[in-house]
Every structure is written in C-alpha cells, then in structure tokens.
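Structure in, sequence out. Go:
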C-alpha cells in the first residue's frame, strides 16, 4: 500500500515511520511522499535524508479548499492509497476526507474521545486525570473524532506540565503510528458502525 504523509513541524512521528520501515517492520507499506504546509517544517529534512520525495504547499497563502485540492492532486499523481497525518496541524475538508475514507490515519496525544484538538496535554492536566496517553485513529469530518485504532495509556504525574507530559507520551506515539500503518497495509483494519475491528493475521 502506497502511503503519503502530511506534517507541519518537527516530524518525529514521520521519522518513526521511516525508522520502522528501515527495520523491516512495515511490510507492504511504501512511503511515497511527504507534504508539509510550513516552509520551516523539520519533517522535510527528514524526508530528504531518507530519500522520500517531499512537497511544500503554503497553507498561509491559500484557502483551505485550495490547499486540499493541491494536496489531493499531488496524492493522485504519486498514486497514494492512504495518508498518514504525522503532526499535521490543520483540518482537512470533507472533500479530501471523502477521497480517502478510512484511509487517513492520525496520531493524537490523548486517549480519545477525551481531549481532542490542539491542546491535548494542557486539557488533560486541567481536567486532573491520572492518566492520559495517545491514540492512532482514522480521520473523519470532526476534530479527532474518527474511529480509534490503537491506544496506549500513560500516567500523568503530580508535577507534570504540558511539556513533561508530552515528552512521556511521545515515545508511545512513535510505536502506535507505525503499528497502525502496518495493520492498514496488511488489510487488517475493518470499520463497522464506526468501530475499528482488528482482523486476525491471514
Ligand atoms: C505529536 O504529539 C502528535 O501527536 C500531535 O502533534 C505532535 C507532532 O509531533 N498531533 P511530531 O511533529 O511528529 O514530532
């Protein structure tokens, strides 16, 4: 299965995919293109180093619908069959999501449906929960509302701030996202009534 990735910044989750692929842990998954929406996205340098083609579409300069149209055109050009949002901090239009229904993965740093949105760690701390974590999920029209694929719980410690909590959760994101890619590429993810079922290995 041909995967395109979209990222906005640091790209450590994208790097986790590159590394998992290099270790042979993603049989059947090809990483064919990275799209970044910010000129300074560090993810682009990671693509360069890994020999993965990348493109920049300036999300500041164009409207969301136009951004998504250009991104879709690039995805079709490289014959992408699935998309991974690896720290891509923008919402996608329903047209984009429909074009890849149940073929767009996202990684989110909280146990969804708790704490969706861009401030998951801050929101988890403000709620006083004793554990948070991360979720790999399919993207639907809502903000972090799509069917959950995999989750990992991580403790919240009394002295945590958003940075320390993020740092504790991040290594688990780096395991969950490649695992979700592996399952999708292996045809092992079925969505029934909005719930993901992980099918047994063939
Ligand atoms: C991660 O915490 C991810 O869950 C969130 O944004 C962050 C991106 O980090 N959506 P990176 O760019 O993958 O390093």
């Amino acid at each position: 299965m041909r995967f395109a990735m979209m990222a906005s910044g640091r790209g450590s989750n994208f790097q986790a995919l590159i590394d998992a692929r290099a270790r042979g842990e993603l049989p059947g998954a090809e990483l064919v293109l990275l799209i970044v929406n910010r000129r300074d996205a560090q993810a682009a340098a990671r693509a360069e180093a890994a020999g993965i083609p990348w493109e920049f579409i300036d999300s500041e300069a164009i409207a969301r619908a136009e951004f998504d149209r250009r991104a879709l055109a690039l995805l079709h050009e490289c014959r992408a069959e699935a998309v991974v949002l690896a720290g891509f901090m923008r919402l996608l239009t329903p047209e984009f999501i429909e074009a890849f229904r149940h073929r767009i993965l996202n990684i989110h740093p909280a146990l969804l449906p708790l704490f969706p949105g861009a401030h998951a760690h801050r929101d988890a701390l403000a709620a006083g929960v004793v554990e948070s974590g991360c979720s790999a999920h399919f993207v639907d029209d809502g903000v972090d509302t799509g069917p959950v694929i995999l989750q990992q719980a991580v403790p919240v410690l009394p002295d945590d701030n958003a940075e320390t909590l993020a740092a504790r959760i991040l290594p688990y994101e780096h395991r969950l996202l490649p695992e979700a890619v592996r399952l999708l590429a292996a045809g092992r993810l079925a969505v029934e009534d909005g719930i993901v079922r992980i099918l047994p290995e063939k």
